[in-house]
Write a structure and sequence with these properties.
The longest helix is centred in the middle third of the chain and has 14 residues. The protein contains 8 helices and 6 strands; from the N terminus they run βββαβαβαβααααα. α2 crosses α3. The protein has one domain: Rossmann fold, CATH 3.40.50.1820.
């Protein structure tokens, strides 16, 4: 269902009564933008318009982030890669395309390529994390991060110390939205689920 006429066009795609929000531009070979942990499609607000001058660029909100509803179940790389594959298929975005991901999205992109290698022409890692050696060492870093992060974010410490959503050039219009999302409990829960699923 198309809900917007402006460029980039806005679509809501439904699957089993759960919506996934996707921003979409039609050009040539697609670049698929994947946000880092806890991020939604808005984080690419300064990058997407520049890239869209020369190619087709798609960003989206993973389940439980931004405008997308949460989905039950594990939020691990396999699940996230499968949901992205399904979303791209529904939106008729065909490969091969380039995956571009920030932070933990590097893990999701690696997983996507392992399941759907013919879909991908290339990958761009933006300050990407590497697969965690913590499972080998016995240290459960996602569990530790969850235990530390939960009270810090619930109390709003990052916002109090001014660590949230400072406007960047080109983001002025989105700054209010970004600041409102800094301590969104739905997104915080999804972020923790993704960390635990790594």
């Amino acid at each position: 269902m198309q809900v917007g006429q402006s460029s980039p066009r806005v679509f809501l795609l439904s699957r089993r009564s759960q919506d996934a929000h996707q921003l979409h531009r039609q050009w040539l070979t697609a670049i698929i933008l994947e946000a880092g942990s806890g991020g939604d499609g808005l984080v690419w607000g300064g990058v997407q318009p520049v890239l869209s001058k020369t190619t087709r660029v798609c960003s989206y909100d993973r389940a439980g982030l931004g405008w997308s509803e949460s989905r039950p179940g594990t939020r691990d790389a396999d699940r996230i890669a499968g949901e992205l594959h399904e979303l791209l298929h529904q939106a008729k975005v065909t490969g091969p395309f380039v995956l571009m991901g920030h932070s933990v999205a590097g893990l999701y992109m690696r997983d996507y390529i392992s399941h759907y290698p013919t879909d991908v022409a290339g990958i761009i890692f933006v300050d990407s994390v590497l697969p965690s050696p913590s499972r080998k060492s016995g240290t459960n870093w996602p569990l530790i991060m969850t235990a530390v992060s939960r009270p810090v974010f619930i109390l709003g410490i990052p916002r109090l110390i001014g660590a949230c959503s400072h406007p960047k050039p080109g983001f002025d219009v989105s700054t209010g939205i970004l600041q409102r999302e800094d301590v969104c409990h739905t997104e915080y829960g999804t972020c923790l689920d993704e960390l635990a699923g790594r």
